[in-house]
């Protein structure tokens, strides 16, 4: 059976959405990143980058959320757009846009908005990542104007990839900023209303994860705090 290494953060949740939508049987393996589970030798054999999500599909290892979505979609033939060169090009382009833009900039925006120490460099970093996060969401919002879904006229893995982070847009930016992206919100709300989305979000509640962001958690989540670099 497919093993799904996860926690309740945005990237694993988008993979959980695919698994619930597709009905693929899977074993959920909790990785408590606040406790440092991601650095255990047995997990590093699955993902040497010490991040969730990852899957072990009967010996086939895949890590990085968007790579997993593409792998599972191609394996099952589900949640892919109509098979045309144009649709495949658009699917790959927007999937990578989420992977290289929405995810990283949202993550850094969250870090500097909610977790980073307020030192002399904080305002610069905070402003940069807020600007870039909002710029990326604006690109999505414009693309979705007049379109129901990200690619073609069907619900695909690109929409799932977007949903993982975009459902947290107010936490990434602010309520006021997130409200500017009405087209993104419309799609996120549609996906969030699906039964599979509720199951994907609720998966974390079937496991006990460390809730406190104490010194141990900060050290495991933000390892640069323990390391000086040149």
First and last CA, distance: 44 Å
Spatial strand order of the main sheet: 2-1-3-4
Percent strand: 5-15%
Structural class: alpha+beta
Low-confidence runs: none
Count the strands? 4
**Rg:** 18 Å
Helix content: 40-55%
Question: What is the H-and-E element order?
Answer: EHEHEEHHHHHHHHH
Mean pLDDT, all residues: 96
Q: What's the helix count? A: 11
Largest sheet, strands/sense/barrel:
4 strands, mixed
Shape: globular
List keywords for this structure.
230 residues; alpha+beta; 4 strands
Tell me about this structure.
With 230 residues, the chain is an alpha+beta fold. Helices cover 55% and strands 8% of the residues. The chain has eleven helices and four strands; from the N terminus they run E-H-E-H-E-E-H-H-H-H-H-H-H-H-H. Helix 1 links the parallel strand 1 and strand 2. The model has no long low-confidence stretch (mean pLDDT 96).
Provide the fold topology:
Blueprint: E1 2-6, H1 10-22, E2 26-30, H2 41-44, E3 54-57, E4 60-63, H3 65-76, H4 85-115, H5 122-143, H6 157-166, H7 169-172, H8 175-178, H9 182-192, H10 195-202, H11 215-221
Parallel strand pairs: 1-2
Antiparallel strand pairs: 1-3, 3-4
Helix pairs in contact: 1-3, 1-6, 1-10, 4-5, 4-6, 6-9
Q: TL;DR of this structure?
A:
The protein has 11 helices and 4 strands; from the N terminus they run βαβαββααααααααα. With 230 residues, the chain is an alpha+beta fold.
